[in-house]
Amino acid sequence: MSDTDSKTTRDRFRLLLDQANNRVVAGGLIVVLLLLPAALNAFWTRIAVGALMWIGLAQSWNMIGGYAGYLDFGHGAYFGIGAFAAGITMTTYGLPFIAGLSVAAIVCAIVALGVGIPTLRLKGAYFAIATWAFAESMHELALILDITGGTFGMSLPTGADAIILPLSGPPTEMFFYYVMLALAVGTTVLAYVLFERSEFGFRVKAIRDNEDAAQTLGINAERIKRQVYVLSCSIAGLFGAANAFYITFIHPNDVLASILTDQMIIMALLGGLGTIAGPIVGGISIFMLDRMSSLFLGTSTLYLPMIGLLIMLTVLFAPSGIIGILRGEVGLTEIKDNVSELADKFNFTR
């Protein structure tokens, strides 16, 4: 066997070993997450529910924003649409939670398809403004419609009969923990398979990097962009439906607020755009910063300037996010160069 063949065999063995290690780590992490509620009290279980929800939402935005490269400023609207779709299904029609989840995903998919056909023809800031305007219109519409409760909001059923499972009482924190865990893990696995391990993902990245060149290779860019947009918006709707059943009261000012989209973008950006681990790291970091500042500093607004500072530092010195730093894509030398360049630009060194 030649040196080249030996090296190739060794490389393949290392690759298989790395893949096996990744699967073992992922499997171990899932087991820990399944057992975690047994070690947590109600307060920390509630924190875990929130963290899982934001991981899933950031992951859903990362599909269209990170992988497809379209800055969607209206993604939070689908969180609210899913919440109201589930609420109407459960209160007006008396159907169980699982039906509310299904209706939320279907309604969001239909709305996203209708919105995506014209808006995905736009690029850059034009797409961002169009989706932002759509989200604002949904907010205003929900405030005047009777079916959403208007300015009074909507209350969802809380009894055990709202779910099909044979529970002895109302759903507990642990029930919602496992609902959010299933949605967050399912979203992450789906994103990994679709965007990191399939031909579909390579086509999406090709469109992101150079849409004209991708089309010359025979890739139907419009259809693929619509598929990614509909998928990501449907997932946001699922989380909106689950959250609505969890908090039992929804209002347009809460579930259709523009801050929801802002947080999804910040989480994906801080963690690392266009990566699987980025939304996980960013989602946990930003959500815990929010909760811990409220818990230990007694304020829920102090974390906003801290987030702003983090985003500025990330954009200026580590545009590939925390994951990029951990992967060594941005080293100390690059950060020093960026600082020196910035200092020169503002004459700080003179």
Please characterize this protein's 3D structure:
α3 crosses α9 and α11 crosses α12. The protein has a two-stranded antiparallel sheet with strand order 1-2. The protein is mainly alpha-helical. It is globular, with a radius of gyration of 22 Å. It is 75% helix and 1% strand.
Briefly summarize what is shown.
The protein is an all-alpha fold and 350 residues long.
Secondary-structure map with pairings?
Layout: H1 3-35, H2 42-67, H3 75-91, H4 97-119, H5 124-144, E1 154-155, H6 173-196, H7 199-209, H8 211-216, H9 221-247, E2 249-250, H10 252-255, H11 258-271, H12 277-297, H13 303-317, H14 321-326, H15 332-345
Antiparallel strand pairs: 1-2
Helix pairs in contact: 2-6, 2-9, 2-11, 2-12, 3-4, 3-5, 3-9, 3-11, 4-9, 6-7, 6-9, 7-9, 11-12
